[in-house]
Specification:
Layout lengths: L1 H16 L20 H22 L4 H8 L6 H22 L16 H9 L10 H24 L14 E2 L8 E7 L9 H10 L5 E4 L1 H10 L2 H7 L4 E4 L13 H15 L4 E5 L11 H7 L2 E3 L3 E2 L9 H15 L2 E6 L4 H13 L5 E2 L8
Parallel strand pairs: 1-6, 2-3, 2-8, 2-9, 3-4, 4-5, 5-6, 7-8
Helix pairs in contact: 2-4, 2-5, 2-6, 2-12, 4-6, 8-10, 12-13
Length: 374
């Protein structure tokens, strides 16, 4: 019976990874304006919100069979998809209300939106005319949001059998949705590969930029580093940064029999060796964790730390410039949130500085890692 259950669980996990399609990205050079003021950030934000809303509205007419085929799945969880759509609409409405506060300074993409019904109405008729200043952006943006929405819908279609960051199991889990407008938190995942490890470069770059982030580390990686260098050296590497746990090994914590020990051992090691940097947060590898884990995490004094802006810079996915442009587009769409980079991919060394440059005068802020998931 146990073997059969493990085989079934493996098949579910395989289904989550099979044929997900290419990660969405958008060439930001198609947007004709620099984001060099809070008002121009709002203009671009309103445009991305309306385009995503139009695409989202278009999926609601698809029946279950057609949507499953579009997502490359045999079966889909319709209830989970509908719940995701509801959350997306509410967030789009909130974000558009924030973005239209500068309409008296620049009226581009400003329409009468008073409630969800009027947002849906404006999304339905949203179109960029051929002679528009923004025409070169229009079709690339539409394609980006189609592809990005499919990423979200696919994860929702598999949830909760295959868990991911697309939804939460309870209030003990946190993502970026509750953060203040224009505020973003930098987080960094690790991965199973040993190299490249950009931790040292990233922490030094952040310190020089007077910024910080939360690094989610593997227990076995920290143990290996302590075998090569002193505790003081490791503390210097992570100086002024926050460290959470990602488990002892990079593997799914949904069906791993020793997942609790994986989390507990890693947390104990960090609390002992890096107490000034440690924050009581667990980042599940690939977002995969158990639905019935609340009691364990509360007993350990831990929260599950998810994300809502994914750089998609994992192996074989987006390169540096593509990853940065994806993140910036999602920052405009969601207006706040938790950004997830991969510390063991070189894309972050290009993407992150580019984002800082592009947004330096846009009026956004970077949340302190000590406060990010509160």
């Amino acid at each position: 019976m146990r073997i059969a259950f493990l085989l079934f669980a493996w098949l579910l996990s395989f289904g989550a990874m099979a044929a997900p399609g290419d990660a969405a990205t958008l060439d930001r050079s198609t947007w004709p304006e620099q984001l060099n003021s809070p008002t121009l950030f709002d203009v671009a934000s309103r445009a991305e919100i309306l385009m995503f809303a139009k695409v989202l509205l278009g999926t609601e007419s698809l029946d279950e069979v057609t949507l499953a085929q579009r997502l490359g799945l045999r079966t889909i969880n319709v209830d989970s998809i509908n719940q995701l759509r509801d959350r997306l609409w509410q967030r789009l409405l909130t974000n558009y209300n924030f973005a239209q506060q500068s309409c008296d300074q620049d009226a581009s993409f400003c329409f009468l939106v008073e409630d969800l019904a009027t947002l849906r109405e404006q999304a339905a008729k949203f179109v960029i005319s051929e002679d528009s200043f923004y025409i070169k952006w229009s079709e690339p943006s539409r394609l980006f949001h189609l592809q990005y929405l499919d990423e979200l819908l696919r994860k929702a279609a598999l949830f909760p059998q295959t868990s991911s960051e697309v939804d939460r199991f309870g209030d003990y889990e946190r993502n970026g949705e509750a953060m203040n407008d224009r505020l973003f938190l930098l987080t960094f995942d690790t991965a199973a590969n040993a190299i490249p490890d950009n931790t040292g470069w990233l922490t030094e770059y952040l310190r020089k930029s007077n910024l910080n982030g939360t690094f989610f580390v593997l227990g076995k990686d920290i143990q290996a580093r302590l075998g090569e260098r002193s505790v003081a050296s490791l503390q210097a590497t992570y100086s002024q940064q926050c460290i959470g746990v990602q488990g002892w090994e990079f593997r799914s914590h949904s069906y791993w029999q020793d997942w609790q020990d994986s989390v507990r051992r890693s947390a104990d090691l960090l609390k002992t060796k890096l107490p000034e940097n440690y924050v009581p947060l667990f980042r599940p590898p690939d977002g995969q964790r158990r639905a019935d884990a609340q009691g364990f995490f509360e007993a350990q004094g831990l929260q599950v730390a998810l994300w809502d802006i994914d750089a998609q810079d994992g192996a074989g996915k987006l390169k540096g410039s593509q990853s940065g442009q994806r993140v910036l587009t999602l920052m405009l769409l969601w207006r706040h949130g938790v950004i997830n980079f991969n510390v063991k991919q070189d894309a972050v060394k290009t993407a992150m500085p580019w984002i800082f440059t592009q947004t330096a005068q846009s009026g956004i802020g970077w949340e302190d890692c000590q406060n990010g998931f509160r």
